Amino acid sequence: MPNLLTIPFKKTFDVPIKQRVRDYISQYHTDVHPDALKWDISRWEALRKDGVGGVVHVDRVKASTVYHAQLVFILTKLPLDIGLDIPYAPVFNSAAPPMTLRNLAYERASVLFNLAALYSQLAAGQDRSTPQGLKQMIAYYQSAAGSLHQLATSAAPKFLSSIPDGISATEFSGAFIESLQSLMLAQAQEGVWQRAVIDSYKNGVIAKLATKVASFYNASLRAITEAEPSVRQLFSAGWLAHLETKQYHFEGVAQYRKSLDDSSAGRYGEEVARLTLANMVVKSGYEIARRNAVAPAVLQDIKSLLDTVQQTLTTAERDNDLIYHQVVPSASTLLAISEVSMVQPMIPGGVADPRTALGNDAVIFGELLGHGARVAIELYQDRRKNWIEEEITDRARLLDDDSTSTLRSLNLPAALEALEKPVGLPPSLLKKAEEVRQEDGPAKIETSINDVQKLAERNLGLLNEALDLLDQEAEEDEVFQEDAPSVRQPSSEANRDLVAKAQRYRGILDGGMQSDTTVRQKWDEWQRFIVQLTWSNEELEGAVPSSTVSLTSGKLGSRSPNSTQAHARQLRVLLESLDDIQRSRNQLVSRATRLAASEDITPRILKAASAIERWVEVHPSMFEDVIDDELSKYDKFREEIEEGEQQQEVLLDSIKERNALFLQSRKEDPSVKEREHALQSLDLAYHKYREISRNLDEGLKFYNDIGDILARLRQDCREWCNYRRDEMNSLLRSMQSMSLGSDAAETPIAASSSERIVPDNHSDNDSLEAPEAHSPESPSSGPSPPSATHASSARAAPSPAPQPAPQPTPHRRHPRTIIDLPPPDSDEWEAAVLPPPPPPSVKKKAPASKRSR
């Protein structure tokens, strides 16, 4: 009916049940062939076709109830995820993309939701004009509320707890289901109210029924408005307006019916007060309905009620004013109308107890081992495996490792083997000697030493070449400075950065050469032993002293050979006992492993599972007592491990004591000491060989790296010197031009139009002004030099050369003339009078950079 709301179906689509179930059975139930479950799979497909909703017919109630019951049982046999993608579209937007999950609990919750939707749509289709229609409508709405109640308390929580974080399932949230459940109860109670009106119940009773209708609508509305935004946005504005309008409608109906009850009881003042309150409430509801898109029938109902209330209020006020003259109380002083609920959630019998829905029908997968039981079997197998590894295998391995490490620290049984068969070299030493022989170690080291020395000399040459360039430029600058002092920055200052950089690199080279000397000394010290490692095994064995002589001759210092032999025999007995314990322990591990491989807990789990009620969802925790009992049979292995551990501790203590006596008996044997010293020297020689090779490799890399840097330094010095020469030549040309200008002041020649007079502010002793000297930017330093094992020192810092005192030339103060010089290829130079060349210098000073060498 248009003035009632119905719950729409959650639209679903076909799913490949057959293929996914067969795949799951093949993978996880290897003892069952998928063809054995052909009927179960077909039955599941058939039930889903009619049980997921979508068709409004009373027969579909049984189909949905049966399918829900089968799903409840299926969930006791299968896990939630069997690889089956289950799609359901949103409730209020069936055209939207469906939410697809691999979760059987999602299927059950959706089926239960659609069952409630089916009940609500069946109720809305009943004929409310007949008592039987109203009765059926009330029953259907209560069944819808009961289905939603079962969804909220059973199916939805299991589903929500099984989905991963990040997946939103707001249509199964508590607020969403609660709102729909209250709506179903409100419309069922509205049916009861309507039946009371038709049957002409007392106005007081009808008022109480109407109050409960308004309360249900208010609960439905409040569940939405107080919910999270994700829940509120699922409902349209028209849906919310319908609920609010209905709430105001029945609050007004309750006050109106109570006013009639007051009137019949002679309470005319309260009659007017309640009608006034009803008018206010109904008018608010009418405004909400008028402004929003509510159903026309709802708007018409509240408009009709408003007209009736207003007419009755007008009559009641007139009668009270003219006839009764009773005081009209305020609305706040009126007694609240008590609520009477005649409806409640009625869970359908087949939903509350799924077994009753099937009757004598067979359950799906009834003979299949339940998922919980199968998980219990896997859980037992994992626990057994972990227990054996932790309590038996790992403990046995730790005891073996402890025994092995103790014997290794005592050098046993190698010490006994050396005593019984002292001739021969340790395999590790023979392997090291073979490595040196294959690499031709001594020749390789000599070659590397020569290569390092050549690279060092080459790098030193590069550095000296760079400094020679600076020295040559400094000598040229000194000559220039004597003829034209203070014209530009002297080389001792201008080349300061380059000289400092060269000194730093010289220090690094000196450190590298010191390291080369250390490596060479190391090679000279160990060369003889490293060369021995290149001998053949026979030659090397002959070079190592043997301890056989002292044992056979009986020369053991103050100890007799019988004492050593006695201790050796006792040690051998103790070691054999230790081997027996280890052998027994290994057999124990093998027995435990074989027992685990041969036993099967499945029969006991099946027996325990059969004792559990069939429709109860089986959890692995239900089999804890069986698992613990089965694991107890392995306790005997742990006890034997602990016993062997105690025996091993006693034996190891005895071995340590006996070995100390054995070593003491051989302590004074000189042949043993000589042999040990020789073996130690050869072993250390191998490590020195590796160390020297590594040092030489580092030296080669060092000199190659710094060689690139020194080459760049030489190039920087060459470019700087060229720049200085160009600058010097430019200054000389300028000075010659100024000299020509001075002669021209006495013997004028044709001056250029660009000639200008500059006033001279210097004293009479000042010389002619020259272009301002400047130093070029320092060349880029490039990457920092390597600083591996090579330390840094530097050349001695160059001492700045003393500046010659300028010789003042007396001359008369006059304006200075600056003349634009003609081009070098101009004919004007033929007519120019050039100054005489400067006199040769009396004394030449050494360049600053050379003095630093």
From TrEMBL:
Region (Disordered): 743-853
Extent of Low complexity compositional bias: 776-798
GO cellular component terms listed in the entry, alphabetical order: endosome
Protein name: BRO1 domain-containing protein
Ranges of biased composition (kind: Basic residues): 842-853
Composition bias, Basic and acidic residues: 757-775
Every BRO1 domain range: 3-486
Sequence intervals crossing the membrane: none
Pfam families reported in the protein's UniProt record: ALIX_LYPXL_bnd, BRO1
InterPro entries: ALIX_V_dom, BRO1_dom, BRO1_sf
Entries under PROSITE patterns matching the protein: BRO1 (PS51180)
